[in-house]
Amino acid sequence: MKKYVWWGIVPAFLISTLSAIICQHFPFFEIKERIFVTFLTFLLLYSYFAIKAVNSATQNYESLRKKYETLKIEKRGMIPVFPLLKLDSLAYCQQQIKKMEKAKEGLQKEYENLQKRINTYEFLKSQTSELPKIFKLFSEHLNLIIKITEDDALKITKQVEDLYNDNVKILDLIKKSVYSGQKLIEVISNQLEHN
Question: In the structure, what pLDDT confidence band is assigned to residue 75 with cuts at 50, 70 and 90?
């Protein structure tokens, strides 16, 4: 409660001082009105923080009361008995042990699930770390295939070009042989006409 009072007094003092300073600049205010405004401000702030302190104390009380009710004694008829002091505490302890075993099984399952997730993550991490190597090998292989294809295409192009040149030469030879054949036929026909 003391800290709330200090939280109320210090700002109220500052605000009252500021209000007194502000009131000096207005000539129509008299000293009584200044004092009234100062103390009114102080009391308003003090009451605000006092109410806030009471509200927080009430909330603390309610939370403590709820905690007490959760730990509250069980009633059998009119006799209050604490759970640890039950007459059948062995059965109660056995129930608690069963609950703890169930909780342990649940935690074990969660641990196994987390372990599986960690293993999956590690596997995926190792696989993704291999991806750059695979990409590098793939790109090298692709570049090699492209280079071999280019070399083969150049060789085939050169062979086709050589074939074309050979065909041109053969055609020239055929034309020349046809021309010389025609000349020969003309010469033979001229010879036959002469004889």
Answer: very low
CA 105 to each of CA 102, 108, 193: distance values in angstroms, whole numbers, following the listed order: 5, 5, 125
Q: What are phi and psi of 162, to 5 degrees?
A: -65, -40
The CA-to-CA distance between both ends of the chain, in Å, stands at: 154
Q: Where are the alpha helices (DSSP H) in the chain?
A: 2-24, 31-70, 89-194
**Cβ atoms 19, 38 nearer than 8 A:** yes
Backbone angles phi, psi at 117, to 5 degrees: -65, -40
Q: Which two tokens stand for residue 80?
A: 């209050």
**Domain locations along the chain:** 2-72
Half-sphere exposure of 119 (CA within 13 A, CB side): 6
pTM reported for the whole predicted model: 0.33
Paired strand residues for 75: 80
Note the Cα 116 to chain centre separation in Å: 21
